[in-house]
Predict the structure.
Amino acid sequence: MPEGQPLVAGSAADHTVCLLLRLGQAAFRLCEDGLGVLGLRVRHYSVLQALADNGPTAQLALGTYLRIDPATMVSSLDDLEQRGYAARARDPLDRRRCVVAATDSGLRALTAVNGRLQRLGDHALADLSAADRRMLHRLLTRLAAGPALPAAFDAVRGRSAARPGQATAAPGP
């Protein structure tokens, strides 16, 4: 790839969603690569950070909170338990439920991960001034907090998870 060629070529860059899509893909690959040296993936980080932020959480509730399907959640938790970063235990009030908690080792690993993510972000956004980075972060946080984009995303996820022939709600305007 020639140096200086944009990530989104031609008039596709006229569409903000195309820019967001490609930049998101690039950021994801950079983060996967950067966290891989620690033996983790982005999904592992998301789970550990949610546990650090919210404390012990029911496994199903954690998956819902992070918008992670149950199979991926089980796989992610298996990986984190193998590394000693998370632990699952039966809920004493409802033995059908598992409660997940970050371990002390997981919280220490999270400190390293957050430092690495900060450095990755600094590198990826090096073309922006500090003020532009703060502005970008504010705008992206506003989009992520919704209501429009999260609702549209959840509607699409619901349709893709529905079985063939099952009716689903259409996204809003």
User: Anything to note?
Assistant: Confidence is low (pLDDT under 50) at residues 167-173. The first strand starts at residue 57 and ends at 58. DSSP finds seven helices and three strands in the chain.
